[in-house]
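Standup notes
- HV: blocked on the assembly model, inputs below
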Amino acid sequence: MELNKQMQAWGESRSVIRDLFEYGLQRKAEIGADKVFDFSLGNPSVPAPPIVAETIAKLQEGDPVALHGYTSAAGDMQVRHKIAYYLNKNYGLTVGAQHLYMTCGAAASLTISLKALCLPGDEVVVCAPFFPEYRVFVEAAGAKLVQVQPDAATLYPDAEAFAAAITAKTKAVIINSPNNPSGVVYPEWVIKGIAGVLTEKQAEYGHDIVLISDEPYRELVYGNVEVPYILNYYDNSIVCYSFSKSLSLPGERIGFILVGDKMSEGAKVYAAICGAARALGYVCAPSLFQRVVAEALGQTADVSIYRYNRDLLLDALTEYGFSCVQPDGAFYLFMRTPEPDAAAFCERAKKHELLLVPCDGFGTPGFVRISYCVSTKQIENSLPAFKALAAEYK
Amino acid sequence: MELNKQMQAWGESRSVIRDLFEYGLQRKAEIGADKVFDFSLGNPSVPAPPIVAETIAKLQEGDPVALHGYTSAAGDMQVRHKIAYYLNKNYGLTVGAQHLYMTCGAAASLTISLKALCLPGDEVVVCAPFFPEYRVFVEAAGAKLVQVQPDAATLYPDAEAFAAAITAKTKAVIINSPNNPSGVVYPEWVIKGIAGVLTEKQAEYGHDIVLISDEPYRELVYGNVEVPYILNYYDNSIVCYSFSKSLSLPGERIGFILVGDKMSEGAKVYAAICGAARALGYVCAPSLFQRVVAEALGQTADVSIYRYNRDLLLDALTEYGFSCVQPDGAFYLFMRTPEPDAAAFCERAKKHELLLVPCDGFGTPGFVRISYCVSTKQIENSLPAFKALAAEYK
């Protein structure tokens, strides 16, 4: 059978994260679930807020034909109006339902947007550390992924490296703040800097460059941290949003694409997004959960639990001598490995039943990602293992 | 903005069906909903069976983190086991969970399968009348759509034309029985004939040809009509299934791909499907509805209502002098237009407030599709309009 070899390769090369997770399941079966400390997956551990179950129950009282029927391909009009209203009110935007396209989550938002925008030969710039699936999404759209290394101290994109990465071939830039895997949130001055460089480069090359903000972690921030809304800083902006993490609904696949209302030839971009969604087989976003998220706007799962987990883990690991980035958002701790080879460090961690993700695939060798979207008990129980691991490097 | 022009074109060229539907909404606002007879959409009009709401309510009692969390990309293992068990029991198959890939409905099943299989230059054969989106799906996968005309009397693929359409470039054949738009169900001898031709052609050209069965209407058959299961007739088979129509859940986007267990290099094909799903942005099928359909296997919405509608409409239209194909399945009546130009006929029908779909885009000029997944009352009320329309051609 002569198949599409690229698809076969992507199907056979399972992600490091998934592999670790599967190893964890097996190991738990061998020695007991409470003896294995799995920090691999970014699967929310806090239940969805009560509004989710309440809305599902309430919707069941209505007409099932309307509830479970097709919505318009772009999403139910009332749902899109509600989201636009919410965004305008909270972020000072001026968008309407016609700028929103409901999707099956952030991955779909990204694949659809990239397919709409990219032509063969185009380049898409991503800022390390970055979610490894970006590579698959960018290459599936026929474009080339170009990565920018971060400033070592802040983990924001290095300003000089960022400017140098934008070439005449750059079609789009993807940013992800709060960031997976580092938990870093880009402050306003960083967003302004990115917008400034892109505005200059657009003028220099005489064509548009789209800024795509992948933001499933927007609401997962701790303390008084602001997540700037990119439409307020740059006109050619697309936001790829997901309710997966904020509402703890990752399996339900619900999110949206927002095409900036001041986007150059925005109606054409929106049309291309409609066409790309059609070509990729997305008929509409799941109809029940379109209605659920419209009722839950502004609400989140209990994020204070993640904050507690973060503080517990960060304080302990720092005390043991590990060097971590202070995460302001998301639910990942990004830790420098005490030996240069992160994979070797993770193998050593495994001997202590600690499952950590080496970050070479995120574009940042020498780091691991520790997902703290787990039970607080797991973190408490794992601390002696982390301490013993640290001792090996003393 | 230099976009992907093909995506823009697919986004801007709305389907004839959607256009009619939008016209209907507008017209209803003008003259009253009960005065417009919209037969355009294939949106189930019968509520989901009670098991759907019951299962949703029951699942709400369990752990929301598990319920709404990510499943494995291929789908929850227990769900896949249940579906495999059901298929084996009902159709005498020997498949397992490892042959099933849960998807966001039939459109996703098709785009994923085609992306996994196709290389540039490949041809995909479809049998007219066919669902117009096949063209988008096939071309999006980089292949060329080749259409086979039906036998005029039966609407089964014409045997000679079918054999002639299979060339050295043929990667796959898509069949759709019960058929949209004709309601025709291919009997066993037709499936055997297709399998026979493909087996011969595989030998002749020395490469595999995949038979893809798109079957969202499998359970919507009237009387003692059997829908043969293609895995029992041809090894290189893929089934693209959806629960949209059988359970009246079209908006929820839930279905599966079944890769034949005797498929040549089946593990590679399955891997390519996993890779294609990843590349298209499908993380997993909606998790709540994976569990719902697993509990509802073998159940359907009340199909007897569609049968009643069919008989009512078929008898009346025949009496008025129209020539219809007797539909054994699905919820469409396929009617020959009394003038050769189906679009002109549909414009004339509009004057009687009848919204019918011209079938040129389905590869069959001179026919219209009449969706009878509407209220029985709408059909009853529409009959004088059909009668008046018929009178114009006498």
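- HV (later): unblocked. The first strand of chain B starts at residue 37 and ends at 38. The mean pLDDT of chain B is 96.
- Next: hand off to the docking folks.
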